Every structure is written in structure tokens, then in C-alpha cells.
Amino acid sequence: MPNAGKLVEPDRVHRLCYTDTELFELELERIFKKTWVYAGHESQVPKSGDYWTFDIARQPMVLLRDANGKVGVFFNRCPHRGAKLCTLQGGNIGKEIRCSYHGWRFDLDGCLIAIPHDQGYEGTRLSKSDPAYSMAPAPRMASYRGFIFASLAKDGPSLVEWLGPAKVGFDDMCDRAPEGEVEVVPNCYRVIQRSNWKLFLENQMDVSHPMVVHESTGRAALDVENDIFKRTGNRPLHYHMLSAFTWPTSKWNELLLTRNYPQGHSVLGGYMALRPEDPDTLEYERLLAERVGEKRKEEILSTNIHHVIYYPVVSVQPPLQQLRAVRPISVDKTLSEIWHFRLKGAPEAIYRRALWYYNLVNSPATMVNADDLENWNRIQRALQAETPEWLSLHRNHGSDIVEGDVVSTREGLSEAPLRNQFRAWKAYMTQGAGA
Amino acid sequence: MSLAREVESLLYRQSEYLDSKAWDQYIDLFAEDGLYWMPPAPHYTTWEGQPSIFIEDRDLMTVRARRVMHPRAWSQQAEWTTNHVVSNVLIERTDDNEVHVRSRFHMMELRRDEIRHFGGMYRHDLRRTSDGLKIRLQRVDLFNSQAPYDYVLQVWV
User: Fold this and answer.
1) Chain A partners of B63 at a C-beta cutoff of 8 Å?
2) What domains, with CATH codes, occur in chain B?
3) The pLDDT of residue A273
4) In CATH, what number does A186-430 get?
5) CB distance A216–B41 less than 8 Å?
6) In the A/B pair of chains, how many CB contacts fall below 8 A?
7) Could you read off the pLDDT of A297-318 as tens digits, one per residue?
8) For B47-101, what is each residue's pLDDT tens digit?
9) CB spacing of A363 vs B52 below 8 angstroms
10) Inter-chain contact B152–A366, Cβ cutoff 8 Å?
11) Domain boundaries defined on chain A
């Protein structure tokens, strides 16, 4: 197996990081089985018996709410003969869980209730009170402002420690709600990319790609936006979500600065004008000020973030209330789960505005991500070429602002977030030594 | 021409326009206020205030058409063709102004060397105009709308 520590240098990265199957298996061991992984939002499982299934490092897990209202994360299999217990993507399992193979029954907190025809275990090593014969809980689970994460590692930083200052992404999303929390819009799009999971996360923070990759959509949207303006004197806000891709590179460079943290997380500055002065926005601002006061309202609404990456598992767009969870399947195949949230207590119009972004940019008919996916797939295919061996991460290397272990960019186009993700990757991958 | 023939002719032309990438003619099948809607799942009853895979009026359709015709629409550079078959055409009801039609479709899509399949139900709410039948609302329910998408949809199904 390639030596992971030698594949990453401060300003370049070896192609094998994206293509080597053994290295991918090691990533599951050393990254995905160690870090916090996004499970789901509390509002996804509002009632007793509600569940949602997901994978951690390819292992089937289930998020489940019990009869006392407590949420748990379990390995989604029967401790008897291994059948999967909650088999749909999500749903309601009822008052208890019954295995479809031999009928073992479990409470919604995972505890074994009964084994049918309960004979023949006397004198064996199986005891019904032994937790080994209940549903096994994830070693750790924690929630931050309603967003639930689980970890397969018993030890490690707490969720809040791991989120670090990048928790501002979840804070920004929730603080924008007059009630201080969000609830999920109950629909999950699942999109598969035929490429390595890292390409997804790098792309969200790669400020030099949008004007190239999304030129076609930006141009088409601007043309039609201009036609609409001529016809009606109005520029619908959702066209701006697409036409912004026509901005000159200098503007991206000036506005889209990042802060990058040692866990691999990054916060990307906002660029879309998402605070217009129409009656809906003014009504929303009034409601927010009523709850939190004028000063706090200004603090909240002047937070200007486009995207936050929680490496290596989830990408959040706070002002548009979108979230994408990344599930690696194999070295060249990755699933993303795409969600939208509603600001509790905000007017319907504010929800509908952000819904346009979910529909136009994040749906399976996206006019934006279609060209990202195409490029990642091209990269994955072309990285089979062994020459050149290294991929460049040189832009602005050495000229970013370094304060302790936090790297901030002076130029939006700096590849600092990509270098930062590999800094974290290398730290994960070289722990446990010997590799 | 009988109403059934007229309706079928519209559905078949729509398929032909998609498969031949005649986007302008495709968009012209829709009324001025016409909508193309693909809900995320069959239980949705409205697109308003709900997520949609597609919800496009003629303006947004024009964005999509111009995008895919742009020389640097990267996803379009791969060989990409579709083949639609429409069948099981049922006129559900008619009134003075509108004809409500249900049909089934099957789309095969070739992208590079791989074939994908999409199937499901169309519901066309057609308006009678001096220019013949025009689509006021086309609802498209994919039978695999909730399955993972291996890559995404680029134009209307």
C-alpha cells in the first residue's frame, strides 16, 4: 500500500490519494471510523418509532426515536443472525422492532424484548440480559442545535470540540430562525458521483472553478434574467442564484475569502445578495428583531457565509438552509444526501426563496451541479493516467494569513482550503503509525 | 381529427422534440403560463411551497435550453442521447377549455458508454387555444424518483 504520509506535501498531492483502493479502505478505518459523521436532524424523526437509515464507513446505521422521545443511533442489524432491522430509507417502525428472519423483538431503545419460542438457551453463553444481544448503539452520539452526529470511535474530541469555530455554520443557520432552530423539509435527494469523496469537499471550497464550470448556466440565466427585466422591470431573486456565475474572476477573488481550521473544516464567505429590502424580507427582519432584539438581529443578518465544510462528512449552506452529507461508497463512488431546512418562525416567503436554491441548484435536475459532477467524473477517470504523479495546490501557497493553526485567505482564489483538507487528511491517516 | 388523435399527436411530437434536441419547439408546446413539474414523489399534490425536481415555466425552460446549447456546457460534451416511448394514453376528462390526459413513458438515455432508464407517468393538462392544444401543466412522476440518481437529469424527461 502507498505510504499515506508521503502522498501529501504542503503544496501538492499525489494522484493515488484519489485512486488507490487500499488507501480508500484505510481512509474508512482511520478517518470515517474515527471522526464524527452526520446522522440526521432531530426533526427527521419527530415521533416515537420514526427512523432514518444511513451509513458510517459503509456500515448500516439507524437513527431511531424511542417511546420516551430520546433519539439513538444503532448499528442496523440483528445481533442474532445479522439481518438488517430497519430496512427502508426511513419511516416509522411502530412500537417495537421485529426482526424479519427469526422474530427477535427489540424495544425502540434497542433493548431485546423477547426471542420467540424461547427455549434451548439454558446452559449456553447467550443471556437475554447481556447487552451483546440487544441492538448495538453507536459508540458515541451527540447533537448540536438539532443536527445529530455519531462516531464509531469511543474516544476522541467531543462534537463541539470537533466542530470548533466552524460551528458558526450551524449557528448561522439556526440563529436566522426567529425561534432559533430549523426543521427539516421532509425530502432527501440522493445523488451518486462516480468519483472520490474528496473531490466533492474540495469543490465546495474551490473558488477558482465556478466561473469556468458554471459559465454556461450563468450566461443562460443572465440572458433570460435580462429579458425578464426588460419585460417586467423586475429581476427575480432566484435567477441571481444562477447568473452570479457570470461575475468576473476579480470579484470572486475579492469576496470569497475562507477561514480554514485544523480539523479540515472551512468557512467560505458569502457573495449572493441575500438580504434584499422587499416587504417579505422586512417582515422577516421585524419578526427576528422582535425575538432577539435589534442589535442581535443585525449581528445575525450581517453574518455573511456561503458555505461551511465539516471535513470530511458534511457541507452546509447556512443562509440558504441546505445541507449535503457525504457518504463514501468506494474509491471512485460517493453518495451525497441533500436536504433543505425551514427557519422556524420565519414567514413562508423566506422559506420559498431558499427553496428555489434547493430546486435549481441541489435537485437531481440541477443546472449547476451537473457540470461539477461531470468534471469530478472526468478527473476520476483521467487520474488513472500515471503521469503527472502530482496534483497542484500551489495557488497563494505561502501568502495566506496564518494565525496559530488557522489559515485565512487574502485572495479568494487561494487554494488554502484544499491544502487545509489534506493537512487534516494526513493527520488522520498517519495516526496509528506504521502505515 | 379526433380529440384522441390530436392528443396523441402532441405527446408523440413532444417525445420527438426531446429526442432530437429541438428545444425551442419543445418549449413552444407549452402555453404562455405553462409549467413543467416533476415532484420528488407521487404523494405531492402541489409544487407551491414544496421541493420539486423540476418546476419550470417557459423562462426557466429557456435558461435550461440555452445552457445545454452553450459550447461550454461541459456535461453536454459527452455523447448523450435519449429515446422516449409514450403509450397507454388515456383522456381522463375534458371540459370546455381543457383536456386532461394521462400516459406512461419510458426513456432510455445513453451517456458515454452507459445506459440509464427512466419510466413513469405523464399527466398533461392541455388548454384549447386558437393555436391548437397547449400544455398548461405537465406533471411527470418518475417511478424511480426516490432512487439514488447516478449522475443527474440534464433536460426534461
Assistant:
1) 217, 220-221, 223-224, 239, 242, 367
2) 3-142 (3.10.450.50)
3) 64
4) 3.90.380.10
5) no
6) 106
7) 999 999 999 999 999 999 999 9
8) 999 999 999 999 999 999 999 999 999 998 888 999 999 999 999 999 989 999 9
9) yes
10) yes
11) 40-144, 186-430
Question: What ipTM goes with this model?
Answer: 0.96
Q: What are phi and psi of A182, to 5 degrees?
A: -115, 160
Q: Which of B152, B156, B157 to mutate to test the interface with A (most CBs of A within 10 A)?
A: B152
Q: In chain A, which residues have pLDDT < 50? A: 433-435
Residue A49 falls in which region: left (phi positive, over 0), alpha (psi -120 to 50) or beta:
left
Nearest residue on chain A to B156, alpha-carbon basis: A365
Look up the pTM and report it: 0.96
In angstroms, the separation between the Cα of residue B85 and the nearest Cα of chain A is 21
Which of B38, B151, B154 best probes binding to A when mutated, by most A CB atoms within 10 angstroms? B151
Å from A396 to nearest chain B CA? Answer: 27
Third-level CATH fold of A40-144 = Rieske Iron-sulfur Protein (2.102.10)
Asked if the domains A40-144 and A186-430 are classified in one and the same CATH topology, the answer is no
Q: What tens digit of pLDDT does each residue of A163-172 get?
A: 999 999 999 9
The partner residues of A333 in beta bridges, in order of sequence, read A330
